[in-house]
Amino acid sequence: xxxxxxxxxxxxxxxxxxxxxxEPTTNDSLEVQMGKVxxxxxxxxxxxxxxxxxxxxxxxxxxxxxxxxGTAVAL
Length: 75
Description:
- By secondary structure, the chain is α+β, with helices and mostly antiparallel strands.
- It has helices spanning 7-13, 44-54; strands at residues 4-6, 18-26, 32-41, 59-63.
């Protein structure tokens, strides 16, 4: 998983999963445009545990599917 992927490639490859991206490239609105996927899972907590263990210097966590109704997102 050391390959740099665009956000479109990440979304197509890891559909409806939480994705941990190292060294993300972002636009002016801080939306992820590309990066290296270092972990992915259907379980959000598992992705955050891996992030805490690996401690990447710069990272982003995204969800590539539609969030379930009633889910709140804090930015």
